[in-house]
Structure formats: C-alpha cells, structure tokens
Amino acid sequence: MTSQTSSRPPIRFRGRSFLAVVLAPEAPVDDWLADLDGLARRSPAFFAGRAVILDVGALAPSREALTGLVAALLERDIPIMGIEGAGGAALGPGMPPVLNGGRPSGEIPTPGAPAAAAPAPVPDRAPSVHSLMLESPVRSGQAILFPEGDVTVMGSVASGAEIIAGGSIHVYGALRGRAIAGAAGTPGARIFCRKFEPELLAIDGLYRIADDIDPALRGRAVQVWLDGDAMRTAALD
Predict the structure, then answer these.
(1) Are residues 81 and 138 in the same domain?
(2) pLDDT digits 0-9 by tens, 20-65
(3) Considering just the CA atoms, what is the radius of gyration of the chain in Å?
(4) Alpha-carbon distance values, 187 to 70, 80, 231 (Å)
C-alpha cells in the first residue's frame, strides 16, 4: 500500500508583538485605585481599546487580593489581558494568564513540522528613520501611535487627541491633548511644546494629569522630562 503525503500545508503559527499599557499598582492599593480614578476622570477614554497588562511584582498579593484587584479594574472598564509578577499559586480559575517579559518574536515552528530551509541572505539596506513627522494638526479623537521613535507635530494637538511615541514628542503648536513619550521603555525621552495646555503627560510609564501641572506654565513653551522617579517641567522661554 502506497502512502500518500497530504498536499495541504502545515499549520503555521506566528508570533506578534503589540504595544500594551502596563499597570503596576503599589501599596496601599486603595490609594493607588483612587489615583487611577482621578486619571480616568480627566481622561475617560484613556484605556479604551488598549491591551492592558497588570504587573503585581511590587505587591506579591495573595490569590484573594489579586482576584479582588482584577475585579476592581474590570469594574472600571479596564480588562486585563495578562498578569506579570504573580506566583502560580496566586492565580485561580478564570484569571488572566501569566505573562513574562514581552519581546518581539518571529514565526513559531509547528511541533513535528519539517525544518524550514535556511533563509536567503538579506541585502544591506539603509537604516530606517526612527521618527515620524506630522504636517497637519492632530484632531480631537485621533490617536497617533509610533513606538519606533520620536513624533514631531508641526501643528497643534487638540483636546481629546493622543500622541504615543517610543521616543520623544515635539509639538510646534499647542499641546491640549495627551502626550505619552518613552512608551518603548525610554526614560530619557522628553516632551516639548510651543503652548503647554495638556490633559495628560507620561514618560516611560510615569503619568501626570492636568490637575497636577503648575498653572504658571500654562500657555508657555515647555519641556518635560524625568529626573529619576520624578517628572520635571520647565519653561523654554
């Protein structure tokens, strides 16, 4: 009896990386949740449509405490796609999966599938430009995501708009929306703008809402940067 080989190709699995927001609560959790509520009041759509990972490494919570924390976030319309920093014993049925150290990944070989042939050499290419320039203003409701590097806006960023950059953000008009720099884990990133009226600022995961911004800087040219775990702002004029 002659065996026949199926003409159907093997099932192929691919890895893909996404930019996720990582929430890292600190004790006392009730105070941290209150701060989160303040952020949500100022920027109610901030978590809408985002992938959110919960990093509980600083808490080492029990199963009951972790279950309660996930439930509290779900009540705030923040579904958690995965949890970092929790021991397996802390995760009960129905909890998000454990995640460890997100990083880019390529094609994942199927178990039992024949090894692929060695890839052909890739020709030399000019280095990619790690910056994005926007000639037009960013309107309310728009979200610009560029994790590869800096974002420069030649116009203004309207209230309700959002810029997320892996590097620094430069706004040559008014910054009235949300500016999130250093999203790729770049603490040296900065935010610059000609007219400072933001709803929310963030650099490398450290956030500040409008209520926490020095009113004396409003309407001025300003730069924002991190000094250790503190966010600094200073006028440029």
Answers:
(1) no
(2) 778 888 889 999 999 888 877 767 767 777 788 888 888 888 888 8
(3) 22
(4) 28, 25, 10
